[in-house]
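Illustration: Spermidine/putrescine ABC transporter substrate-binding protein.
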Amino acid sequence: MIRHRHAVRALLGASFACCATALWAEGLVVSNWDGYMAPDAIDSFNAATGNEAELVLHATNEEIMGKLIASKGKGYDVVFVSSPFAEVLHNLGLAEDLDHAKLPNIANLYPQATELAHDKGNAFSVPYAWGTTGLCYRSDLLAEAPDSWMDMLAPSEDVAGKTTMLATDRWLLGAGFLAKGYSVNETDAGKLAEVRDLLIDAKKTLLAYDDTTFYAKLVSGEAELVHAWDGWCNYGIAENAEIKYVIPKEGSDLWVDTMVILKGAEHKDAAYAFVNFMLDPKNHGWAAENILYKVPNKPAMETLSAEFLASFPNMDMSPDALLAFEQLRDVGEAQRAYARTVSEIKAAN
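Result:
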């Protein structure tokens, strides 16, 4: 568990000494979230290929997208972004049309990873990690195991004040959409208003909105039921085996994080080499073992031990089971309505 704890600390904000800004880089520039690949991945890639790649960190999808749109993709070669944002890059003409002949390790992907709704056939993005969003809870503190989004949105009296929700627009609204039986990509104004009202009512029972420390609140007992990405729930499970994860009966979204090569990349051959390097089972398997997210790489997942999978049951979810859920997509102009609705929810008393 030592490596796991290092990974969690990295995800919560520690910076790698090797990191630079894109404007200063002379070689391949890769932008990723902190801690989302092995600490020595860049150095290992450089040693193996003779490249001079540098890592630039971004905290959120929105942060890197703002930079990419402002620069028209200049200054970056490979970016890690969630699938709706990869879709936006493609629609803006900023994503490279991938030549699979330059990515022989793409054959390591599960067949299901080529069927993702945002990019069937992996024409402009390569999936790096995927998973679900659900409820993470203390099985020893709750009288009954939760099985519905409403267990969090309208909790019983003994649980009220001990719940947290994700604050990020897509996932905050997603819980409401799923609870109402709507698409996680719903754009109808009337349905969006229904979800807004539901989430304003739910806010009155929350301990907090929390995207980063919710699992620690479970470990301490401050919270008993939280809205969680499956991998982050695993961080809590690693600390306390009484913490469990469940996908509510109304379902989940399918989230996918991807690697995108920019069409304007100045080091395109190196960019292909880097993506191919990350698809090597050893390199891709690091993410599964240390970040505790499922990866869509069949040989990488097959390296996980039975003991590991027993400790983190959601890691053993099949690709077919994942694809049964609706993927988050680019909602276009409706994103403004999403942002406005979330602002109204957070401003409400």
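Reading the tokens back as a structure: Confidence is low (pLDDT under 50) at residues 1-25.
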